Structure formats: C-alpha cells, structure tokens
Amino acid sequence: MKNNEDLSRLILEEMKKPTYSPSRTKELARSLGIPKNDYPAFRDFLKSMGGRKLITRGKGNRWALPGNEQRITGRISITRSGSGFLIPDDTTIDDIFIPEEQIGAALNGDHVAVVMEKERGTSLRHYGRVVEVIERGSPRIVAFITKDGKARPEDPKNPYDYEVITEGEEKELPYDHKVILEITCWPGEGGEPAGKVLDILGPSGEPSTEIAAILANFEAPGPFPDEVKEEVRNLVRKLTDEEMAERMDLRDLITCTIDPKTARDFDDALSYQVKEDGTLVVGVHIADVSHFVRPGTELDKESRERSTSIYLPGRVIPMLPEELSNDLCSLRPGEDHLTKTVFIHYSPEGERIKYEIHRSIINSKRRFTYEEVYALITQKEAADNFEEKDILAAVEGLHSLAMKLRKRRLDNGSIELNMPEFQVLMDENDLAVDIALIEHDSSHQLVEEFMLAANVALAEWCKNNGMPVLYRAHEHPSEENVGELAEFLNASGYPFKPPLNRKRLNGVIEKCKGKPEEHSINLAILKSFMRAIYSEDPDIGHFALNFPNYMHFTSPIRRYPDLHLHQMMDAVFSRGADKLPKKLHKLPKEGGAEIVKLGGHTSSMERRAMKIEEAVKDFRRLELLSKQEQREFRAIVTGVRKFGIFVEIENYFVEGMIPRWMLEKKGFSTREEIPSQMKKDHRRHPSHQKPGFHLGQEVKVKITSIDLKARLCEMEFIGTL
Q1: Environment class of 296 (CB within 10 Å of its CB; exposed 0-12, middle 13-18, buried 19+)
Q2: How far apart are CA 559 and CA 234, in angstroms?
Q3: How far is CA 513 from the centre of its chain?
Q4: Residues pairing with 720 in the sheet
Q5: Four-CA torsion 296, 302, 307, 310, nearest 10 degrees
Q6: Reported CATH class of domain 140-204
Q7: If both were cysteines, with which of 32, 178, 324, 570 could 320 make a disulfide (CB 3.0 to 4.6 Å apart)?
Q8: How far apart (Å, rounded) are the C-alpha atoms in residues 428 and 132?
Q9: Can you name the CATH fold of 628-720?
C-alpha cells in the first residue's frame, strides 16, 4: 500500500471529485484500487483520518469531506403526530427521523431530499431536514366524502379538501364513505385541488373498509393479471423420463414437513439418516418452484414485481398464484413433488463435515404441526403411542442435533433477541376475536436450525463460484447507533460501553429476561441494528446471526430472492446431472447492474410488506380493544418526547400518546429519567423538579375514545405503578 502521505492525498482527491458521493469503506477501497490484502490497513487509515477531522463518516457509515452536506433522497412517511421518517432510496441507510418543523412543504409519500442536522446538546442524535420535494407521491390516495360532497384525505398531513370530478351520470357519492381518489390537480398548482374517484371502499370505520384503505395506501398487490393466470393453467405437471433421469430419486427416503396448524403451503421438508460410521446426514428439501416459474415468463415478472408474500390476520396476499403455492409446489404427504435438496453431513457432536446440493424428487411421509412435534419430543406418552417408529426416530434425531447446532451458534456469538410474537385470531366473518402468543419452542427451533444451515451452505457455494445472486446482508451497527444504545442501556441500569461486544450484548439480553424492562431493552437493541437487505455482495455477512456469508434459499414460494437463486442454480446444473458441481466453469449471463437493481427492488418490497403487515395488525388490535367494556389498563412507556410520552397497552399492544399538558396536570414532566432515579411516590422529588419517565416503566391509563375511522386511540394518564 502507498505511504500515508500519498494515500491521504489520493483519498482527498477522490472525495473532491464532482462525481464523488459518500461511500462506505469497501466501496472507497474498490474505487481506489486498494488490494485485498491491504484492506485492513486501509480501513484503519480511514478511521485515523476521521479522528483527525480530515474526513467524516455520516449516515450508513459513508465517508465524505467535512462540511459537505450529504443529501439523502427517499420517500417521506409522515406520522399522525406530525413528525416524519425518510425511507431512503439507498436501502443500506436506516430510516431518518424528521421533526415536524423540518418537513416543510412535503406531503406524505413525496420523494424528497434531506440533509442531516445534529440535535443541540448532543453529539449523537441526528435528524433530517427536507430541502427539496423532488416528486410528489402517488396520485392515488384514500379519502372520505364530506357532507358537501368533497373528498378529504384520511392522511392528516394532506390538509386539503379535493373537488370530486364527475363524468356523465355517475351516482352520488355516499357521505362518510372512504374512496380511492386519483389526484388530477395538486395543491399549489393553481386552481382548486381536485381528483377523480376510482373506487368506493365502504363506510368509514367498518373493519373491511379500513383494511381495504390500508392496502390501498400502500398500493398492495391485487388479483393476478389474466396473462399470469393463463400461464398457470398451461403449466405441465408431469415430468418426462429425461427430466426424471436428471433428478436424485428420494421418494423412498423418510421425509416429513413441520409447519403451523393453519399452514396451507409446505415448501420445506426434512430427512435424517445415521451412516455406519456414525455420520449424521440431514436432508433439507425445498420445493422446486423454479421448475415452474421460468425466467422471463409473465409469472416470473409478476412474482419479481411482488417480491414477497404479505401475511395478514386471516389472509395472505401471495407472491405466487394459489395453484402453485398450495398445489404444484406444496410438499403434501403421499405425493411426488420436485425439490432441491441440500444434504449436510455432521459429526455426532454437531460439527459440519460437508454438504451436497441436488435436484431431487421426494414423497413426504408425514405432515407434522409444531404442536405435534413438540409433544413427541417432550412427552414420553406421546412418543410411546406414536406408531410410526421410523419417523419418530428421525424426528428425535433431528431435534437432538438441532439443539447442538443451536448451542454452537449462540456460543459463537449469534444474537437472539427476546421479542415475543403475537397473532390476531379472526372469526368466519373476518372480524378480530382474540390475540394469541406465537410460541417459539424447540419444535420451531428444530426447523430453524436446519433452514439456517442450508442457507449458509448455499451462500458458501455461491460465493466460492462467483454466482451473480442476492445475499442476505446485515451490516454491523453504526458507531452512532451503538453510542445511542450505550446511552440508553447505561441509563436503564445495564452498564454498556462501546464498541459493541457480542458477549456483553448477549449478557444484557440474558440479564433483563423476565423483567418489566425486557421488551424495551430488546426493542432498543433491535432499533440499533442496521436493516437487513438483499445485496450482491457476499462479504457483508450477517451481523446478528454472526455468519460471514448468508443468503435465503429455503422459501421460494414466498420470497423472490430465494426463487431467483433457484433459477440461477437451474442455469448451472449440468445436463443429465442431479448434483451441482463444486466448481463452475461457465457463469449465468445475468449479473452486475441487474443484480444490484434486483437487490434494491426486493429490499424495498420487503419493507413495504412489513409496513402493511404492521399497519393491519395495529388496526386489528385496536378493533379488539374497542370491543372491551374495561376502560382502565396497565401500559408500558415506549417513548419519551418533549411533547409527551408514548405508551403501549399491555396484552393488546395498542400504542397511544399522552400529551405533555396532561402529564403536567398530574405533577409529571416529559423529562427522560433513568430507572434508578425513579421513585414509586413522585412527591419525594424536590418541589422544583417534577418526576419524568423511562422506557419500560409501567403506568396506568384510561381509554377515553377509540376512533376506528381515524385508527386512533386516545387515553388519559392516571398514574405510575
């Protein structure tokens, strides 16, 4: 590597170029031609330049010259409280908080540019300021009809009434019904804001209407196009003799699926064998969706556009038509189905010896639910009464090995947060009736460990062969995020000092287990992490799992990156061979910019799906709460701001905001305090200092109103507990 003076000059010259945009360390190393062996020294040198203030590291760990404002572009999402978040175009950058006073003329969903500002009094907290509205958001919005026949957006940050343009003899629009409005004249463009009604969703406040409104707001996928349906009808179901000869016939192998009770598609199966030398061989068999979804077809284009299935209480918006997900590609027991198989060989102690990857055909011998498997591995009576002893032996062997793999993974520094999951239960009328905890017991862990193992194996194979595919990338948290996390943990009574240390972080997770603050501690840790994305770079690795290379292979029915990987594997299977070669000689044509673009698109669609799922679950929980006669509830403080505190009602997970004036009326302030300073009786504080709040603190609130139309819950603060 060049001497320090030359390298410093080279870096500064690169950053002064008009075409330079803030870059991560690896990107900068590539653009400067730094040899791979010199990369560690180059990385340390950049840090030293940063320490001398010659360069600065901003959002997303990107290096730039100090004083150069980094414009970050993306879509703005404005909350009901008036503040907003930028969802950056660059998926490696976390969402950026934008205070209400910094939003300017932007409306919800606009494509904007922001620059970063520092909050006064701290060197850590940053926020964004909108400096340009690049493009208005979608012209289609959800609105409700007012008494005077205008359309008023349900989004409170679009405070304009729109004239409704009618054509011909259209029927009168019903009052207080929600509609999808296509804006034809934006506010500020001259003339009255106006739009045309495309669809009437139904009466405001009705659950079916509100769910439809949420889906419309996020532009969720609708029915599959006719050309896709036609392709599905014409799919050939039967293999030719030549195609059968290219597959490893595993139909006599004992395989089984393990899924939730309500599952309708089964895309993975497991098998277990013990060799004469004691080697344990686990087969991970994944539905061969790419046999039916060929690149370039209408079916492929549609599934690529959707990128992921969206899971809502009581229903699914699928990536693939039901004929594929629930029939052709579902590994139902007693039926021959096409698969791709990863055989992983282990020592009895759980050390991986080798792996093989095949095209195959299986016939599942049993469909298990998680509950059935859990009973077999924990209840002697259930195991004794289970008649198929060969299948039982396979399940017990899989469980024993999975627990060894899990221990190895956690001992190796994999971070596992304690974030309980809940599902909203629906009745036959599509109404919410209850909330149930989703158990993550050893039956779930059994499946999880082998899916992780298969994903790691494929990631290694693809990297070794230079395959142009998407990896699941999860970067290390930024120094800024780790600093903020340390502030919070120290204030919460859990001493933590940067830099991030996996062992100490896992120690915090273990120490808070079962305590009132457990959820807020785990949530703070999760928020400090970077967002996992799909990337063409295999070397980013997966921080939380602590895997140097990782990708998604095991769910091609519901995730397009998995399906794309399967398609690329098909492209390199040798004709007449059922096994992937260890080394490739010819790579598939697709690569480069196309893979980068696909990674950005699938990451973006995944984020949209997550937002839809969360918005629908939030409404369903609010719907449940609205049916309760009880009005006073225990709640947990989830946020402390100058304007008030955010709390979440226990067992219903409905969040609301208690304004500052209400707290002050009760003798409290909106100052954030550390738990050790809190007193059960706030009157013990000095008369000049009102008590504040801390995350995870238990309080008591009273529900004053629930507005399903606005999807809001208003509550009154009663006191601390």
Answers
A1: exposed
A2: 23
A3: 24
A4: 699
A5: -160
A6: mainly beta
A7: 324
A8: 48
A9: OB fold (Dihydrolipoamide Acetyltransferase, E2P) (2.40.50)
CB atoms within 10 A of CB 390: 8
Both structure tokens of 402: 């999975």
In angstroms, what CA-CA distances link 523 with 406, 418, 505, 527, 639?
23, 9, 13, 6, 11
Strands across the sheet with 366-369, in order?
A: 248-249, 352-363, 336-346, 280-287, 268-274, 255-259, 366-369
Contact (Cβ atoms closer than 8 angstroms) between residue 625 and residue 655: no
Residue 168 CB partners (closer than 8 Å, separation 6+): none
In whole angstroms, what is the distance from residue 718 CA to residue 721 CA? 10
Q: Could you tell me if 198 and 264 are in contact, meaning their C-beta atoms sit under 8 angstroms apart?
A: no
Which secondary-structure segment (H or E) carries 372? helix 370-378
- Which backbone phi and psi does 591 adopt, to 5 degrees? 175, -170
Position 133: which residue type? V
Range among 34-38, 77-81, 447-451 rated most confident: 447-451
Cα–Cα–Cα angle for 322, 323, 325, rounded to 5 degrees: 55
Contact present, 530 and 500 (Cβ < 8 Å): no
Nearest to 447 by CA among 262, 282, 281: 282
What would the two tokens of residue 118 be?
A: 């520092």
pLDDT above 50 (res 677): no
Average pLDDT over residues 378-387: 93
CA distance linking residue 522 with residue 520, whole number of Å: 6
Cis? peptide before 348, omega within 30° of 0? no
pLDDT for residue 125 = 60
Residue 643 phi, psi dihedral angles, 5° rounding: -90, -5
**b (16+ CB within 10 A) / e for 517-533:** bbbbbbebbeebbbbbb
**713's tokens:** 């819950």
The three-state DSSP-derived secondary structure of 435-485 is: EEEECCCHHHHHHHHHHHHHHHHHHHHHHHCCCCCCEEEECCCCHHHHHHH
For the chain, first and last CA: distance in Å?
Answer: 62
Burial of 335 (C-beta count, 10 Å sphere; 0-12/13-18/19+): exposed
Say whether 140-204 and 4-64 share the same fold.
Answer: no
Under 8 Å CB-to-CB from 52, ≥6 apart: which residues?
none
Domain residue ranges of the chain, discontinuous segments joined by +: 4-64, 72-125, 140-204, 226-474+533-615, 479-528, 628-720
- Report the pLDDT value the prediction gives residue 105, as an integer from 0 to 100: 74
**Of 156 and 564, which is predicted with more confidence?**
564
The beta-strand segments (E) located in 136-245 are: 140-145, 151-153, 163-164, 177-185, 194-203
More confident residue, 1 or 394: 394
Domain with residues 4-64, CATH architecture: Orthogonal Bundle (1.10)
